[in-house]
Amino acid sequence: MTSAAHSPSIVDRLSAPHRGPVPFSVEFFPPRDDEGEMRLWRAVRVFERLGPAFVSMTYGAGGSTRDRTVRITGELAEQTTLLPVAHLTAVNHSIDELRALVGSYADRGITNILALRGDPPGDPLGEWHAHPEGVEYAQELVRLIDELGDFHVGVASFPEGHHRARDLDHDTETLVGKLRAGAEYSITQMFFDVEHYLRLRDRLAAADPEQAAKPLIPGIMPITSLASVRRMVELSNSVIPPSVDARLAAAAGPGDEEDRAAVRAVGIDLATEMAERLIAEGAPCLHFCSLNFAKATSEVLQRLGVDVSAAVPVATPS
């Protein structure tokens, strides 16, 4: 199916020269409106100057968000020097629709895809129902993409365990299955305790040393709002460690309105501390959840020794 020029793989990019102590990558999400799209492109141009190994675009299943996602991911491939990874979920899609979406990406020269089962629309923690003509698991989606052409496929991993897994061992078995199906790497859900990442790496090595050799890329989000991050972890079923929550709460202050500047400062400190530990422990890359802003991630990168002087200053506080 792929007729366009083939993109480098993520694994290749991780072994290429990079500016900092390890490669970094950035996650964007599809904007809902034109104003949000302008903000995204401001961040894109800053990150383009910083030279990430790759960028990923999350995926909204169905409707205009989906169409905007495909279009913007294609524009990232065609109009920038960035290497985009397209997220693809099984939610609400038949196999024919999934094939068509993969073809749409291939037509834009995108051959790196993150294969995800996805969350139920409206309630991420709700009951999951497969499309009657779709696939049930991400492992099946990995195989489907692999059958369609010369693609490079990654998957998600969950340091604290996926909320639908029976236990951590079951979660590890699921990840091993996705890697054995052909996934070349995984990107973790964001977490706030490096030990969770290290223990996942240990479980993976014990379960299948061959698959454990594939890159396990940690997801980091520099916190800029306590209220926002608390909502995010509730929806993802992850946990903010009590010590981290206490630092953020102290910065937020006792009032109804949190001190955003103080929370942001602590959030940058926390992300930097996590990143330094992950680098010391041999993480192959740092994947930043940017929320379509560049400044917070740029500050963390600067603290890690990345030269960010080439980046255009961003006026927004996040």
Report what the structure shows:
It is a single chain. The protein has 318 residues and is an alpha/beta fold. The protein has one domain: TIM Barrel. Helices cover 46% and strands 13% of the residues. The protein has twelve helices and eight strands. An eight-stranded parallel barrel has the order 1-2-3-4-5-6-7-8, surrounded by five helices. Helix 6 links the parallel strand 5 and strand 6. Helix 10 (242-252) packs antiparallel against helix 11 (260-280). Residues 314-318 have low confidence and may be disordered.
Annotated CATH topology: TIM Barrel
β-strand amount: 5-15%
| SSE-based structural type | alpha/beta
Q: Using DSSP, what is the number of strands?
A: 8
**Unreliable stretches:** 314-318
Helix run count: 12
Outline type: globular
Supply the number of structural domains: 1
* Straight-line distance between termini: 40 Å
Oligomer: single chain
Instruction: Give the ordered list of helices and strands.
Output: HEHEHEHEHEHEHHEHHHEH
Helical proportion?
A: 40-55%
Strand order of the largest sheet: 1-2-3-4-5-6-7-8
CATH class: Alpha Beta
Going by CATH, the architecture would be Alpha-Beta Barrel
Q: Report mean pLDDT, rounded to a whole number.
A: 89
Largest sheet: 8 strands, parallel, barrel
C-alpha-based Rg, rounded: 19 Å
